[in-house]
Amino acid sequence: MSDDEARDLEGYLYELRDLVENARTMPMSASVLVNREEVVALIEDILRSFPEELRHARWLLREKDQFLGQARHEAEDIIELARVQAERMVERTEIAREARRTAQRIVDDAQMQARQLVHEAEDYIDQKLASFETVLERTLQTVQKGRTRLQVAVEPLVPEGEVADAEGHGTEFFDQDG
């Protein structure tokens, strides 16, 4: 992976913000001149960086589903083993009673382990998604700030009979000859 590919989305957005903030201003305006090719290239880099983050999120969801499936499968195996063991012990009354107690304990333990595995998987995925959500929120805030800075502010026109000073404020114009 090259250095450009390793840059994260936030880095591209900061670069875009810096490009706009440091752009040459147009005289008598809040508008700035930016190099179209530079801005388009940065936007393309930003767009290319989104799919990796989305793929990562999809991967986390698939990992969660696989983990939950594996946990369910393990729980079913444990329950099946308990059932088989219980059937073998049913031969005598005393053994049958003990078998039922043991089987129930094994089933309860298996269900508890399955619930614990499911909760652990959900907690892990929730942490990863929360981290991803934080990155996306910061990215959204950065994009919104960038868009706000790109909006053109329209300055009021100077009324007739006044002349704008160096800062664009109107001053009255006095004609000494007339």
Summarize this structure briefly.
Helices cover 72% and strands 6% of the residues.
Describe this structure in words.
The protein has one domain. 72% of the residues lie in helices and 6% in strands. The chain has helices spanning 3-6, 9-21, 36-88, 93-150; strands at residues 24-25, 32-33, 162-164, 170-172. The strands form two sheets. The protein has a two-stranded antiparallel sheet. Strand 1 and strand 2 form a beta hairpin. Helix 2 (9-21) runs parallel beside helix 4 (93-150) and helix 3 runs antiparallel to helix 4 (93-150). The chain is rod-shaped, with a radius of gyration of 34 Å.
When the domains are counted, the total is 1
Number of strands: 4
The run of helices and strands is HHEEHHEE
Distance between the termini: 74 Å
Content-based structural category: mainly alpha
- SS summary, helix count: 4
Q: Any low-confidence stretches, pLDDT <50, length ≥5?
A: 1-6
Shape: rod-shaped
Helix fraction, binned, reads over 70%
Averaged pLDDT:
80
β content, as a range? Answer: 5-15%
For the largest beta-sheet, the strand count, sense and barrel status come to: 2 strands, antiparallel
- Radius of gyration over alpha carbons? 34 Å
The largest beta-sheet arranges its strands as: 1-2
